[in-house]
């Protein structure tokens, strides 16, 4: 008596081996199992129905209180389901494009029926990150990625290399234009800056940091994935931020919000310390290589997601023992 309803309950059912969802109206678990087994051509013996979301097995009472259009999954006696995370596990365990495509379609199908903002966001981000063309490198193979980019760039890696070099050039301009240098030592200060410029030219302004073709110095994987290196005073990003700007145009644009952050701060510490060192050198040689490493290299730079970028004072200072070289003093 309690297994029957005057009004059928409408649910959406899929199986482990079939990502297509079927709308089914049933007045009881028995009817739902019967219709589901017929659709998926399964033997009813031992079959059961679980919530797609978290794998909770349905009882008759549970079924009676389900909201309409609840996502369910039909399992055989041998099968197990831990929730929708299983779909992600399938993806992580396989590089098969067909598996990825199936997961994208599954996520899109779920998204069409999902109203909860948080879950919609998760599904949207999953679809976005999977629907990429990261393996494409040339402009002709991914024209959408290159929209808004000067035609002189023929490959993604060339543009990303230029992007990083542009950031480093921006740091250099701040060093050149620093106004806190005394006029009497301005010439010496600019001589040191010129030495740094020559070094930057030899390494092409360290554009290699964003170039996935570089095996040793790149900050990304060969596929183009970058991971947040965390705030200046942390060892690990708590949110595991990652991004692949090589994947699609939207990710490329979002990557511009990531920072190459100076642990020892450029404006508050490094440049003022360099200027002061020139002012007080008293015949000593400035250790320009030390300042160069702090300003322009990974020794002091961390790639940081905008949420992990601490804009407060870092309270870190340059190492006073490295400001001058330990060689013979230069004559005035």
SSE string, helices as H and strands as E: EEHEHEHHHHHEEHEHHE
Unreliable segments of 5+ consecutive residues: 1-5, 328-332
Helix content: 25-40%
Radius of gyration: 29 Å
Largest sheet, spatial ordering of strands:
2-1-4-3
Overall geometry comes to: elongated
Largest beta-sheet details: 4 strands, mixed
Mean pLDDT across the residues is 88
Describe the structure in your own words.
The chain has 332 residues and is α+β, with helices and mostly antiparallel strands. It contains 10 helices and 8 strands. The strands form 3 sheets. Strands 2-1-4-3 form a 4-stranded mixed β-sheet, with helices on both faces. Helix 4 runs antiparallel to helix 5 and helix 7 packs across helix 10. The chain is elongated. The chain starts with 8 loop residues before the first strand and ends in a 28-residue tail after the last strand. The N terminus and C terminus are likely disordered.
Short synopsis of the structure:
The protein has 332 residues and is of the alpha+beta class.
List keywords for this structure.
two-stranded antiparallel ribbon; 8 strands; 10 helices; disordered N terminus; four-stranded mixed β-sheet; 332 residues; alpha+beta
Explain the layout of strands and helices:
Elements: E1 9-15, E2 18-26, H1 29-40, E3 48-51, H2 60-64, E4 70-75, H3 85-92, H4 97-113, H5 117-130, H6 156-176, H7 186-202, E5 226-227, E6 242-243, H8 249-255, E7 259-262, H9 266-279, H10 288-296, E8 301-304
Parallel strand pairs: 1-4
Antiparallel strand pairs: 1-2, 3-4, 5-6, 7-8
Helix pairs in contact: 4-5, 7-10
């Amino acid at each position: 008596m309690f297994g029957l309803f005057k009004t059928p309950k409408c649910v959406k059912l899929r199986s482990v081996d079939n990502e297509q969802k079927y709308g089914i109206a049933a007045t009881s678990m028995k009817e739902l199992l019967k219709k589901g087994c017929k659709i998926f051509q399964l033997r009813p013996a031992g079959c059961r129905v679980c919530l797609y979301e978290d794998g909770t097995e349905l009882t008759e009472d549970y079924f009676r209180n389900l909201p309409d259009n609840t996502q369910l999954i039909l399992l055989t006696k041998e099968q197990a389901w831990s929730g929708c995370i299983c779909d992600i596990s399938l993806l992580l365990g396989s590089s098969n494009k067909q598996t990825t495509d199936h997961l994208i379609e599954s996520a899109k199908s779920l998204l069409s029926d999902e109203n909860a903002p948080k879950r919609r966001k998760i599904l949207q981000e999953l679809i976005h990150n999977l629907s990429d063309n990261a393996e494409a490198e040339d402009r002709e193979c991914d024209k959408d990625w290159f929209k808004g980019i000067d035609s002189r760039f023929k490959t993604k890696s060339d543009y990303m290399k230029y992007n990083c070099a542009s950031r480093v050039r921006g740091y250099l301009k701040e060093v050149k234009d620093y106004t806190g240098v005394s006029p009497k030592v301005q010439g010496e200060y600019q001589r040191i800056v010129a030495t740094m410029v020559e070094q930057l030219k030899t390494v092409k302004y360290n554009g290699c940091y964003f170039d996935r073709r570089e095996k040793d110095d790149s900050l990304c994987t060969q596929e183009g994935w970058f991971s947040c290196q965390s705030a200046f005073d942390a060892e690990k990003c708590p949110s595991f931020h990652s991004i692949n700007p090589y994947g699609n145009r939207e990710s490329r644009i979002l990557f511009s919000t990531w920072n190459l952050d100076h642990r020892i701060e450029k404006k508050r510490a490094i440049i003022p310390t360099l200027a002061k060192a020139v002012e007080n050198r008293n015949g000593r040689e400035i250790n320009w290589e030390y300042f160069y490493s702090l300003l322009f290299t990974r020794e002091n730079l961390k790639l940081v997601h905008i949420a992990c970028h601490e804009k407060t004072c870092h309270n870190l200072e340059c190492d006073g023992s490295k400001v001058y070289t330990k060689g013979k003093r230069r004559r005035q």
